[in-house]
Amino acid sequence: MATESRCPDWTARALRAGALSSLSIGLPPHATVSGALNLYATEPHAFDDHAVVVGQAFAGFAGLAMANDYLNDARTTLSRHADAAMASGAVIEQATGIIMGERRCTPAEAFAVLTAMAQDTNRTVREAAQALVARTVETPGKYDAP
pTM to 2 decimals? Predict the structure, then answer.
């Protein structure tokens, strides 16, 4: 580290922290995920050619683990979004049906009414739909068959 000149500020901080040598190996890139394996030692010239080979092998496995974690996280997020979209779609359909029943209108007209309700109350369509469905459920007998 004492002879490193590429990053003088970082080198000075590393030396003050007791790192007298370092080995940095980039992880294999995957999509938008990137990283590096950084090893530090308190002895100068601690990393020989064998350490580089071992570090590169480990970096390959670490990169694979990182990519798998990224893909798993992306899959989990996508699943949550799909679940939310399905739930939103269901409540919007329910609210549209309620409006159709009340106003005797087409699905397109009912959705336009729901959209207007959302705009008038400064809510999303889903929030307006949830409120309408909740109000309908809270009024027992209102929609019972004659």
Answer: 0.51
**Cα–Cα separations (whole angstroms), residue 115 to 82, 89, 136, 145:** 22, 14, 18, 28
Q: Give yes or no for a contact between 40 and 19, defined as CB atoms under 8 angstroms apart.
A: yes
Q: Which CATH number fits domain 8-137: 1.10.10.10, 3.20.20.140, 3.90.550.10, 1.10.3080.10?
A: 1.10.10.10
Asked if residue 92 lies in contact with residue 125, where contact means CB atoms within 8 angstroms, the answer is yes
How far, in Å, CA of 98 to CA of 89, rounded? 14
d(CA 146, CA 143): 9
Q: Which of 35, 93, 99 is nearest to 67 (CA)?
A: 35
Q: Report, as ranges of residue numbers, the positions in the chain whose pLDDT lies below 50.
A: 145-146
